[in-house]
Amino acid sequence: MAVKTTYNFDQMLSNAREAYGEELYRMAKEGKDFAFTFSDNVAPSSSAGKLLKEFPERCFNFGIAEADQVGASAGLALSGCTVFSQLFGPFLSLRAADQIHTDIAYNDVKVRLIGTHSGVTSGGGPTHNVIADLALYRAIPNLTIVVPADAGQCCKCIRASMEYEGPMVIRIDRAGSPNVYAEEYQLEIGKAIETLAGSDGYIISCGSNIYECLMASKILKEELGLSIGVVDMHTIKPLDIDTILRVARKTGMVVTVEDHSINGGLGGAVAEVLCEAGYQGIFKRIGMPDEFSVLGAPDEIYHYYGMDRHGIAVTIKDLLNRGNR
Amino acid sequence: MQRNGLQTVAELEDKCVDIRSNLLKFIYRIGMGHLGGELSIVEMAVALYYKYLNFDVLNPHMDGRDRFILSKGHCSETLYTIFSDQGAYTQDYMVEYFESLDTYKFGMHSNRKRCPQIEVSAGSLGHGLPIAVGYALGARYRGENYRVICLIGDGEFDEGTNWEALMAGGHYKLNNLVCILDKNKLQMTGTTEQVMNIEPVSDKVKAFGWNLIEIADGNDMEQVCAALNRLPERNCKKHDAPTFIISNTVKGKGVSFMEGNHKWHGGGISEADLNIALADVSNGQTRN
B120 vs chain A: nearest CA distance in angstroms? Predict the structure, then answer.
């Protein structure tokens, strides 16, 4: 059963990085017990600022020392707290990889690592791009990986994570992205959402790319009458294998789209599932190629690498050999 | 409050002889260990587990317990030996389940999920002190008065995360946090001075805002107890400097052919060497 989505790009823009801070603040006001650790890049004027101002005793700034922050977050969790820890995504994943692996996952503590500026959304060039994190996280046992599609889903993940056991990473964009969902729905970590049903093929995606996938599907419908479904695979681990196999077997065409290297991320995970299940249909990964990206604004980079709606549509046309422009 | 609570220096010294002997026998039986570093921490570990820590080996998750974090996780066999001596397990049990696929309770590097007396899983170096900082912050936030004591090696002090954690511990004035540096002056391939000179440690630690206690001979129980007697009261709400103890020790302490020899960093021990080592331990440290 598909969940109703929106196509209103301009009016529905929201910011997961802001929204999640608001959600934490609301949860604190409700009396939920958690601690918050953060890096120097969390501005007091952001939505987390309200948490810092009203609940300072549970908020800890670690400056610019990501490994220390992640290790200390493990210690805080061992003391009995659920911990939300916000870091700049590239330096969470790469600099603090050993701490995520050993202090968080191996020690099995209830820390929710919030990696911001996902993919190329920072616009800061290859040092600030986050294109290897999913590959790294996927190989760490005991680590749940969540990539919300929009601000509302990010808040749902934050709230759901309070009742979810074990370590978790939540990956969010730098800035605004369109709201994907236009109606209330139940989020279950580990259970994908079919945002749009299809009969000719499916796009499996995550994060803010979901919106561009929906737009690509719309283009293909309008131009060629194709019915391309879109699956929001918001949880990369544990992966919803049943949904992947169902949509693959239903249509015989699967394309993955992610703001991440095509190596080892969502596309890699889906490929493993399909290959091991003996799937012999069409499959293609769309994402960052195996290179350090060109410089530019996120939209420009997406266009350059064929990750925007038009690029996705062209790829699908090619795959189906249907009326390429 | 704690099993086998010992009070006098003489009792603790005698206990060190037991622990050294049992540790050597344990490592002989399992065929692997890190005897150099494990022997250098014996006085400190015995003082903590038999006198200073509020910890019950048979009730290892009790509320309000002091948290001891062995950052140099490769020296966990010293702790296993103490747990055994205090009645948690027999040595036979530990040998049977050492790196056993059945339980993995006792590994070369300690795992808190498998061995409940272990507070933090460790192995990769430079992780303990940041975790201890977070633990102490958590104690303050939750209003619980326990000490968080982290023991690190001077070899692992090379890791930058220790310095980040020193910075944070000083910044947050975590007076319920204690870091003990087991300064045996040797690491895997040579002296710390040769491999990576960290001196002057005392000046650096003080510069980060920690109170410094230096033990001239960390294998002298009287000096170890004198240092631990100087720890501040358990008061998580108080904002004051954390405590850093430099414990000058000897790697391989108590065994003639191991003392000061970095080649005894890791490995097993032969039966012939075991017999010499047991005689050394017995002759060198038994009181009277």
Answer: 7
Q: Report the C-alpha gap between B230 and B210 in whole angstroms.
A: 14
What's the count of helices (H) and strands (E) in chain A, helices before strands?
Answer: 12, 14
- DSSP code string of chain B: --TT---SHHHHHHHHHHHHHHHHHHHHHHS---HHHHHHTHHHHHHIIIIIS---TTSTT-TTPPEEEESSGGGHHHHHHHHHHTTSS-HHHHHHTBT-TTT--B-SS--TTT-TT-SS---STT-HHHHHHHHHHHHHHHT----EEEEEETTGGGSHHHHHHHHHHHHTTBTTEEEEEEE-SEETTEEHHHH-----HHHHHHHTT-EEEEES-TT-HHHHHHHHTTSPP--TT-B---EEEEEE--TTTT-TTTTT-GGGSS----HHHHHHHHHHHHHHH---
| Rounded distance between C-alpha atoms, residue B95 and residue B29, angstroms | 7
Q: Using DSSP, state whether A164 is helix, strand or coil.
A: coil
What confidence tens digit (pLDDT) does each residue in A101-135 have? 999 999 999 999 999 999 999 889 999 999 999 99
Q: A273 to chain B, minimum CA–CA distance in Å? A: 29
Closest CA to B186 of B137, B118, B245, B253: B253
The answer to whether the Cβ–Cβ distance between B167 and A63 falls below 8 Å is: yes
Q: What is the pLDDT of residues B160-194, one digit of tens each?
A: 999 999 999 999 999 999 999 999 999 888 899 99
- Cβ-Cβ contacts under 8 Å between A and B: the total is 107
What does the pLDDT look like over A242-267, one tens digit per residue? Answer: 999 999 999 999 999 999 999 999 99
Catalytic site includes residue A194: no
Q: Which of A72, A77, A81 sits opposite B168 (nearest CB)?
A: A72
- According to DSSP, the residues that pair with A169 across neighbouring strands are A113, A145
Contact between B214 and B246 (Cβ < 8 Å): yes
Nearest CA in chain B to A33: B142
Catalytic residue among A23, A66, A194, A258: A66
Looking at residue A323, what is its pLDDT?
Answer: 64
Q: Are the CB atoms for A47 and A22 separated by under 8 Å?
A: yes
Q: Is the pTM of this model over 0.90?
A: yes
Q: So what's the ipTM on this one?
A: 0.95
User: Contact A311/A213 with Cβ under 8 angstroms?
Assistant: no
Decide if A74 and B134 are in contact by the 8 Å CB cutoff.
Answer: yes
| Residue A182 DSSP SS3 | coil
pLDDT lower than 50: segments of chain B: 1-2, 286-288
The SS3 call for residue A83 is strand
Q: Using CB atoms, which residue from B67, B131, B141 is nearest to A58?
A: B141
Best CA proximity match to A109, nearest among A145, A67, A80: A80
Burial A148-177 (b: 16+ CB within 10 A, else e): bbbbbbbbbbbbebeebeebbbbbbbbbbb
Is B138 close to A107, i.e. CB distance below 8 A? no
Tens of pLDDT, residue by residue over B214-253, are 999 999 999 999 999 999 999 998 999 999 999 999 999 9
> Within a 10 A sphere around the Cβ of B54, how many other Cβ atoms?
15
The CA dihedral of A26, A28, A34, A37, to the nearest 10 degrees, is 70
